[in-house]
Amino acid sequence: MIRSRRRVAPPPSGDFTSTNRRLLEVDDLKTHFRTPRGLVRAVDGVSFTLDRGRTLGLVGESGCGKSVLSRSIMGLLPSTADRSGEIRFGGIRLDELGPKALRDYWGTQLSMVFQDPMTSLNPVMKIGRQIAESLEVHTDMDKDQIRETALSLLRSVHIPEAERRLNQYPHELSGGMRQRVVIAIALACGPALLFADEPTTALDVTVQAQILDLLGEQQRERDMAVVLVSHDLGVVAGRTHDIAVMYAGQIVEMAPTRTLFAEVRMPYTEALLQSAPRVENPSHTRLAVIGGRPPDLIDPPKGCRFAARCPYVQPRCREEQPPLIEADTPGHVFRCWYPVGTDKGREALEKNLAAELPQAEAAVTGAAVAVEAS
Amino acid sequence: MPDRDSRDLVDLADIPSLAPTSTAAPVDLVSAEGGTPLLGRKARQGKLGVIGWLSLGWLVLISLAAILAPILPIPDPDEQTASLARQPPMTDGHILGGDGLGRDLFSRIIWGARASLTLAVCAILIGIVVGGLLGLVAGYFRGRTDGVLTAVFDVLLSFPQLILALTLVTVFASGEGVSGSRRMIFLILALGVVSVPVLARITRGSTLSWAQREFVQAARSIGARNRLIMFSEVLPNVLPAMFSVALLGVAVVIVAEGGLSVLGVGVQLPTPSWGNIIAEGRSDLTDSPHIVLWPTFVIFLTVFALNYLGDVVRAHFDVRESAL
């Protein structure tokens, strides 16, 4: 869309050809925060890849490292963070770039939509100025061109009366409109990869679907890769190609969206699925709850990180951390010694039920409700 | 009336904006000041109200008088008429009477506004530019930069303010043969230096909280440079806090010039300033108190108006924040 760029990243080499659609490769990414209490392992060894035009859903509870992961890839971390591992973006090692070099990628190649449109827009700047800022930083456009581009951006995110909006302040717009503006700003310089960090969490339920549809539409039009961060499996279910489930700083299960829902292997994913409300359940069906809290990321448990809350837990789980194991379907990986839906898993659950392990009983009663309903 | 020497010194130390306060967030500015200003219901709501309009009117009036002094139909402020010396107000058409040397007091107060207001506004401008810049840098970059700068502000604040200004003016612009303009420039510089750490701290506090907002990260995530973010994202949000403190600062500097005049290093005579009119009038305090009383009253009104408007500005912009 924008051709003349003043200080733009070196033109990507042969990596963006149609034969090689690989856009992002993350390898053993670790982000640790130095705090007075000790080292917080917010992201602890995450690897994944993302192709052009694909959407990856990143799901997990609060505090499991979803946001930190996307900010680590962007390079938007505070100075108290230590990052290690490799991040290759179109063949370029992003992790080796300094802040100055990274600035040329921000906005033009990598962009981010933040969670709360109330706080991610500057209250004292007009909408038009905020959109223009990105264009001014990265392009040579003159005033009229910038205005025209800003207008067409606002129209493309379906903001009515775009012309009038340019001269309005954020507080004059509704939450949904503001989030559309935030998306317009993020898209201004045509990024190849967009991080959407819980883009609908702060919005009214009725607006959520609109914003997600808008993101999907823009993604298809621009052939953009999107990382959609959410704590809600329902949000990512129909809108992503792949889903990565995170727990305590690690990816615990990753699969193409359809496969994940059909062949859950990791007990944590299963628990997440069961804790989401379903339309087919009768009203007033009790929601299953995952008891307990995620482990302390300063001193994570030795074995499986979900062991303390897992209905399938066995002695081995508390001793040995499971690696990412490949499932039958290609592209489906999970971390579990006693996977859901296998004989091993069923045996483990039966053993736990016999031993009257509370989380196993809770899981079964929750499941029983679901079975009754269907 | 008590001795002006001690009064001015005590006043200065009691002014909250000169006392070393730390202000963490723009919101805290209100609570930190503590309590409601007298007659300040409208001020709290961020509306001008009757008192606000009167304050604004007064400031406009004295500013106009100061600017237009040369063309106003008033007597020469330096012309001495022996018969007018120490005469009460309304003598021979002299509205406020005469001072100790028989000069028209009304005319001197108007000409004095020129010196006092120029001095105060220029000194605070120095404070805003230098202090604002340092505060912005400290609050935005934090870490070591902030540590060093804050230490400098603390050192500057720990000097008794009036003594610091007194020393600077005495060393650089006092003694025989110092021209009035040289004295003026050094007064502005000295009082400017004094106001720098105050404005720097306010700006730093406000910047600290605004620079943590998500929109600053959002600006970073589209590739904006630090300089652009500081000036176009953070500064406009910090300005209201700076402006309200600057208004209070102007009031403090007007009073401080009075203090310096009493100590003999105010605006150089014969150029009148509100401070040196009071300083000169001290000797006649028992017989002709009006010579001290009128300029004091003018200072009182001006300082009151500035403080009141400062409160209005602060409250007004707090409302904007809570509305978001």
Describe the structure.
The complex is a heterodimer of chains A (374) and B (324). Chain A folds into two domains: 3-10 and 25-240, P-loop containing nucleotide triphosphate hydrolases (Rossmann fold, 3-Layer(aba) Sandwich); 262-365, no CATH class. Chain A contains 13 helices and twelve strands. Chain A has 374 residues and is of the alpha/beta class. Chain A has helices spanning 66-74, 99-105, 127-138, 143-156, 162-165, 175-187, 205-222, 233-237, 257-262, 267-274, 315-319, 343-354, 358-373, and strands at 22-35, 38-51, 55-59, 81-89, 92-93, 110-113, 193-197, 225-230, 242-247, 250-256, 325-326, 333-334. In chain A, the strands form two sheets. Chain A has an eight-stranded mixed sheet. A four-stranded antiparallel sheet of chain A has the order 2-1-4-5. Chain A is globular. Residues 1-18 and 368-374 of chain A have low confidence and may be disordered. The longest helix of chain A has 18 residues, at 205-222. In chain A, strand 4 and strand 5 (92-93) form a beta hairpin. Residues 1-37 and 319-324 of chain B have low confidence and may be disordered. Chain B has twelve helices and no strands. With 324 residues, chain B is mainly alpha-helical. Chain A binds chain B through residues 74, 76, 79, 103-108, 110-112, 114-116, 118-125, 133-134, 137-138, 170-171, 182, 185-186, 188-189, and chain B through 143, 213-215, 217-225, 228, 232-233, 236-237, 320-321, 323-324.
The run of helices and strands of chain A is EEEHEEHEHHHHEHEHEEHHHEEHH
What's the Cα radius of gyration of chain B?
A: 21 Å
Structural class of chain A: alpha/beta
User: In one word, what is the shape of chain B?
Assistant: elongated
Helix-strand makeup class of chain B: mainly alpha
Low-pLDDT residue spans of chain B: 1-37, 319-324
Query: What's the rounded overall pLDDT mean of chain A?
Result: 85
Q: What's the arrangement of strands in the largest beta sheet of chain A?
A: 6-7-8-3-9-10-12-11
